[in-house]
């Protein structure tokens, strides 16, 4: 059994997609980031950076004590190694996947995250910041679009790289992007949209987060951004 400490954000979706794709038994532990639950002492023992997602694996492969992990990229890599799925063993294929996983962690996540902040959450519009992050998001999706030319998935076979990138790229409209600018990415999004495991992972949103506007309140902004 794996405990998934989760909220309905792109990073949270990455891990729920993997768990559904791999057919692993897991339990959702909601962490409402708009109410400050990420600062609870019991959660900080698992995720000292007070961010979701995090997991506790009660049946690690080594048969030892439960393993707690935070950081979505590390979680995906751990689960892939645990199950032998969605991350090749062979060196060249493995690092083809990992480089795109890290590209998401170091590029798409932070840049699209800042895009979300200044476009949607900032208390007042800052045109320079909006322009900066909207353009950088577009640049990154251009990189992705070129990589997907002639490929069904980012590293050839479906992998944790796709699972990591998809929840961010899926939000292209909120990020002020035009999907027609990225035809290969658009086709790839359609392929992932159609996967039953992805659909099951996103169905968790309605179970866990009954108020999608909760992160837009003044109190939620104070907790999330120190405003």
UniProtKB/TrEMBL annotation:
<dbReference type="InterPro" id="IPR036249">
    <property type="entry name" value="Thioredoxin-like_sf"/>
</dbReference>
<dbReference type="InterPro" id="IPR004045">
    <property type="entry name" value="Glutathione_S-Trfase_N"/>
</dbReference>
<dbReference type="Pfam" id="PF02798">
    <property type="entry name" value="GST_N"/>
</dbReference>
<dbReference type="InterPro" id="IPR036282">
    <property type="entry name" value="Glutathione-S-Trfase_C_sf"/>
</dbReference>
<dbReference type="InterPro" id="IPR040079">
    <property type="entry name" value="Glutathione_S-Trfase"/>
</dbReference>
<protein>
    <submittedName>
        <fullName>GST-like protein</fullName>
    </submittedName>
</protein>
<dbReference type="Pfam" id="PF00043">
    <property type="entry name" value="GST_C"/>
</dbReference>
<feature type="domain" description="GST N-terminal">
    <location>
        <begin position="1"/>
        <end position="87"/>
    </location>
</feature>
<dbReference type="InterPro" id="IPR004046">
    <property type="entry name" value="GST_C"/>
</dbReference>
<dbReference type="InterPro" id="IPR010987">
    <property type="entry name" value="Glutathione-S-Trfase_C-like"/>
</dbReference>
<comment type="similarity">
    <text>Belongs to the GST superfamily.</text>
</comment>
<feature type="domain" description="GST C-terminal">
    <location>
        <begin position="90"/>
        <end position="212"/>
    </location>
</feature>
């Amino acid at each position: 059994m794996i405990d998934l400490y989760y909220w309905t954000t792109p990073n949270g979706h990455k891990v729920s997609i993997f768990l559904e794709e791999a057919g692993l038994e897991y339990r959702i532990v909601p962490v409402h980031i708009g109410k400050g639950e990420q600062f609870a002492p019991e959660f900080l023992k698992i995720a000292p950076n007070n961010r979701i997602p995090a997991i506790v694996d009660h049946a690690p492969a080594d048969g030892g004590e439960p393993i707690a992990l935070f950081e979505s990229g590390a979680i995906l890599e751990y689960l892939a190694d645990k199950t032998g799925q969605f991350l090749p063993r062979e060196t060249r294929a493995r690092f083809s996947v990992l480089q795109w996983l890290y590209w998401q962690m170091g590029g798409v996540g932070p840049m699209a995250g800042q895009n979300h902040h200044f476009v949607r959450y900032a208390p007042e519009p800052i045109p320079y910041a909006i322009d900066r992050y909207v353009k950088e998001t577009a640049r990154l999706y251009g990189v992705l679009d070129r990589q997907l030319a002639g490929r069904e998935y980012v590293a050839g076979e479906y992998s944790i790289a796709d699972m990591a990138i998809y929840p961010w790229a899926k939000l292209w409209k909120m990020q002020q992007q035009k999907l027609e600018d990225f035809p290969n990415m658009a086709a790839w999004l359609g392929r992932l949209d159609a996967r039953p495991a992805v659909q099951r992972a996103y169905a968790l949103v309605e179970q866990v987060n009954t108020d999608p506007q909760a992160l837009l309140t003044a109190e939620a902004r104070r907790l999330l951004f120190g405003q």
